[in-house]
């Protein structure tokens, strides 16, 4: 990524909202702190990497068992705890404190693994290190995995993860304007979010050719926010380091916004895997999830008064509205020859949704609002040809579908009583991929992949405009839809190269580069570069480990990230003043770019001392070690030229101390 404020995953120019997240075989909501509805990223991940096992990440044409995602799928596996002894790890650093515990539950192989993390960034503020906001983000999260082997070749596990976060971005207490990556600069914002998953998994071997697995989970996600506008008198203006700062005096504050979005669901994934023979394997399953959606939003109309008081609009008003998702699938893997293997699959996706208002609409209970969208034919196919022990070719294609962000279905236009977008279609995409793998030995490989992706049924505005949902899914703002129709198109194509050396003999490196083009068309019929089209993206990382007497271990590593300059649209000054936010000139959407590409260099140094039953580790990370000023975006200011450049994070030094010990 090329955004220091968020960890969005942009796959091949697609919106990050197209990513499917899954844990232990079942779909989960956005696993990030400070998550905004309609996104799959955030400021900090809730997932603790210390609980993860080997996981899969698919960037296109993924198998039939993965549904409701059009860009990529992140399938996370949880590792079991230590079966032999109890171990603990505690880490304290500038980002906070976390704890891990694991070990056996009995002598039959049952294990536990649990983590907890508590963090505030107040220490960075105390050290005067800029993090993009003067407010102090606070968050905590936890995760666990209990695994129990059972009799008759069966196993059972219980797992969970979750986190809460909040931040109060205060503008009214400022005496001078300040840069703020995470909020608007004209209002106080009180924001909180929470996410949780509780699941269970059961697997049983029925014969030496067949096994079944069932996974169930309860998912929860909630966001609360309140805003109040702050009005100031500007006393003086100064310039420092090329930036303008105003001395301010607070005049008044006005409540402006209150919203609460909550999504809860209960779901299951059941599948059977059968091997007819060593060459032929069949997998068939069903995923089902029932949702309860609660969306409430009330905002002040700054341009409309009644009896000298501003009126309020109710933009969302849903109470436990239901939704249901069905995804049946089947896939067959067959080895035709010693070198040629195919995987052929079929998936269908059906999504039904209903509306229950918080307050009865004129007591009309006999007129329910419902919507159903379906994609019955979603075929998948993959071919792998092993040329020799070193070289392999692969081809993949498939059609994928995804619902829109749930909160969009329930938006109520001013003056209306019911949501008007509840019958939006699923967005579809077709993937075509051709790849080559060169295994250069036990520790190194090169991989090259060329791809083309076609997308359709993307919601765009009914009136002629450049808008498309293909450009949403990042940032910290919600989208307020007008009349949308599922008639938008988009495409992307490119080439990716990966050069990788796995950790061996104390050294590893990874280089990945992508050259691509991503374009879309709105209802005006004009093809434009998408918001996520940077033309290229390059990442390179390495680390070298030095061991002295097996007890003293030094590790030195670094990472470099490059991406093309971000695109933006010129400001519509009149509309921006009216709405007190940066509004674009629609006809000139994404016609301009920030001058310089994104570049960032990170360096890490760590030292580890191993004793008999305990080890100590000290590490320092220097993020953006060159202190490069990468441009993030433009934001609105209430004076000509009505816009200001926001820069991304500068040099960010982080350190931690960790102790590991066994009991």
In short:
The chain has 663 residues and is mainly β.
Q: How is this fold's topology laid out?
A:
Layout: E1 19-23, E2 26-27, E3 32-33, E4 44-45, E5 56-58, E6 72-76, E7 87-93, E8 96-104, E9 111-120, H1 122-126, E10 138-150, E11 154-169, E12 187-205, E13 210-240, E14 243-277, E15 280-306, E16 309-335, E17 340-355, E18 369-386, E19 391-402, H2 406-409, E20 427-439, E21 444-461, E22 484-504, E23 507-521, E24 527-529, E25 536-548, E26 552-563, E27 567-568, H3 573-579, E28 592-593, E29 598-610, E30 614-623, E31 631-636, E32 643-647, E33 652-662
Parallel strand pairs: 1-6
Antiparallel strand pairs: 1-2, 3-4, 5-6, 7-8, 7-33, 8-9, 9-10, 10-11, 11-12, 12-13, 13-14, 14-15, 15-16, 16-17, 17-18, 18-19, 19-20, 20-21, 21-22, 22-23, 23-24, 23-25, 25-26, 26-29, 27-28, 29-30, 30-33, 31-32
Mean pLDDT rating? 91
Class by helix and strand content?
Answer: mainly beta
* Helix percentage range: under 10%
The coarse silhouette is: globular
- Distance between the ends: 41 Å
- Beta strands, count: 33
Enumerate how many helices there are, as a single number.
3
Strand content: over 45%
Spans where pLDDT lies below 50 across 5 or more residues: none
| Rg measurement, Å | 26 Å
Query: What profile does the largest beta sheet have?
Result: 22 strands, antiparallel, barrel
Description:
With 663 residues, the chain is mainly beta. Helices cover 2% and strands 61% of the residues. It is built from three helices and 33 strands. The protein has helices at residues 122-126, 406-409, 573-579; strands at residues 19-23, 26-27, 32-33, 44-45, 56-58, 72-76, 87-93, 96-104, 111-120, 138-150, 154-169, 187-205, 210-240, 243-277, 280-306, 309-335, 340-355, 369-386, 391-402, 427-439, 444-461, 484-504, 507-521, 527-529, 536-548, 552-563, 567-568, 592-593, 598-610, 614-623, 631-636, 643-647, 652-662. The strands form five sheets. The protein has a 22-stranded antiparallel barrel. Strands 2-1-6-5 form a four-stranded mixed β-sheet, with no helix packed on it. The chain starts with 18 loop residues before the first strand and ends with a strand. The mean pLDDT is 91.
């Amino acid at each position: 990524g090329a955004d220091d404020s968020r960890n969005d995953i942009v796959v091949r120019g697609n919106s990050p909202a197209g990513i499917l997240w899954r844990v232990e075989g079942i779909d989960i909501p956005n696993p990030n702190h400070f998550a905004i509805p309609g996104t799959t990223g955030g400021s900090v991940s809730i997932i603790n990497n210390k609980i993860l096992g080997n996981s899969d990440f698919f960037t296109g044409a993924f198998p039939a068992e993965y549904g409701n995602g059009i860009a990529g799928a992140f399938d996370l596996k949880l590792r079991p705890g230590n079966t032999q002894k109890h171990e603990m790890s505690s880490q304290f650093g500038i980002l906070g404190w976390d704890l891990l515990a694991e070990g056996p539950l009995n002598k039959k192989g049952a294990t536990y693994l649990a983590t907890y993390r508590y963090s505030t960034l107040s220490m960075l503020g105390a050290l005067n290190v800029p993090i993009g906001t003067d407010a102090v983000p606070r968050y905590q999260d936890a995760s666990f995995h209990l695994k129990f082997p059972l009799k008759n070749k069966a196993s059972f596990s219980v797992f969970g993860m979750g986190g809460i976060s909040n931040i109060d971005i205060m503008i009214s207490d400022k005496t001078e304007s300040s840069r703020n990556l995470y909020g608007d600069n004209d209002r106080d914002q009180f924001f909180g979010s929470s996410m949780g998953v509780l699941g269970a998994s059961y697997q049983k071997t029925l014969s030496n050719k067949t096994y079944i697995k069932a996974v169930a989970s309860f998912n929860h996600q909630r966001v609360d926010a309140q805003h109040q506008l702050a009005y100031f008198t500007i006393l003086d203006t100064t310039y420092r380091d090329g930036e303008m700062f105003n001395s301010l005096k607070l005049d008044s504050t006005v409540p402006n916004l209150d919203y609460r979005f909550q999504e809860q669901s209960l779901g299951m994934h059941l599948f059977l895997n059968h091997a007819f023979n060593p060459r032929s394997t069949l997998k068939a399953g069903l995923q089902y999830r029932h949702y309860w959606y609660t969306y409430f939003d009330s905002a002040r109309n700054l341009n409309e008064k009644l009896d000298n008081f501003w009126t309020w609009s109710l933009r969302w008003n849903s109470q436990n509205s239901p939704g249901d998702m069905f995804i049946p699938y089947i896939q067959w893997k067959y080895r035709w020859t010693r070198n040629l293997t195919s995987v052929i699959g079929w998936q269908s996706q059906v999504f039904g949704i209903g509306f229950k208002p918080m307050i009865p609409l004129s007591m009309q209970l006999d007129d329910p609002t419902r919507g159903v969208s379906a994609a019955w034919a979603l075929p998948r196919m993959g071919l792998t040809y092993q040329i020799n022990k070193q070289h392999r070719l692969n081809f993949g294609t498939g059609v994928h579908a995804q619902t829109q962000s749930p909160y969009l279905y329930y938006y109520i236009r001013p003056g209306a009583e019911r949501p008007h977008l509840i019958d939006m279609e699923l967005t579809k995409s077709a993937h075509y991929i051709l790849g080559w793998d060169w295994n250069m030995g036990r520790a190194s490989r090169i991989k090259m992949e060329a791809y083309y992706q076609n997308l359709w049924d993307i919601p765009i505005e009914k009136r002629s405009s450049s808008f498309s949902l293909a450009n949403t899914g990042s940032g910290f703002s919600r989208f307020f839809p007008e009349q949308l129709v599922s008639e938008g198109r988009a495409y992307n194509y490119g080439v990716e190269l990966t050069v990788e050396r796995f950790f061996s003999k104390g050294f590893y490196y990874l280089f990945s580069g992508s050259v691509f083009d991503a374009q879309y068309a709105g209802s005006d019929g004009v093809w434009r570069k998408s918001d996520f089209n940077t033309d290229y993206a390059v990442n390179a990382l390495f680390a070298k480990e030095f061991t002295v007497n097996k007890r003293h271990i030094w590790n030195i590593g670094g990472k470099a990230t490059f991406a093309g300059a971000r695109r933006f649209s010129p400001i519509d000054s009149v509309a921006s003043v009216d709405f007190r936010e940066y509004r674009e000139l629609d006809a000139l959407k994404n016609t301009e770019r920030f001058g310089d590409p994104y570049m960032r260099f990170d360096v890490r140094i760590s030292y580890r001392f191993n004793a008999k039953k305990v080890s100590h580790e000290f590490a320092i990370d220097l993020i953006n070690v060159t202190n490069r000023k990468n441009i993030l975006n433009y934001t609105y200011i209430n004076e000509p030229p009505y816009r200001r450049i926001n820069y991304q994070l500068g040099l960010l030094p982080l350190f931690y101390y960790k102790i590991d010990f066994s009991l």
